[in-house]
Amino acid sequence: MLRVAAYARVSTEKDDQINSLTNQRAYFENYIKNRPDWIFVGVYYDEGVTGTQTAKRAGFNRMIEACRAGEIDLILTKEVSRFARNTVDALAYTRELRACGVGVIFINDNIDTRDGDGEFRLSIMASVAQEESRKTSERVRWGQRRAMENGVVFGNNSIYGFTLKNGQLTVNDDEAEIVRLIFYKYVCEDKGSHIIARELGEAGIKPPKASGDWSGAEVLHILKNEKYIGDLIQKKYVTTDYLTHKKVTNNGDKIYIRGHHAPIIDRAMWEKARLIRESRAAGANATHPYESGVKIVCGGCGSSFTPRKSPRKSGETYKLHMCRTRSCRGKAVCGMRTVNDKSVKAVMEYISNFFTAEFDCAAAEVANEIEALTDTDGTRTEQISEKINEVNGKRLRMLDGYFAGKITETDRECLTAEYDSELARLSAQLDALENEKKIRTERQRSSDLLETIKNETLFSENVYAEIIEKITVYADCLIVKPKHLDFSFRITYSTRGYKNAYTTTIESCNIVRGEN
Question: Rounded distance, CA 195 to CA 197, Å?
Answer without folding.
Answer: 5
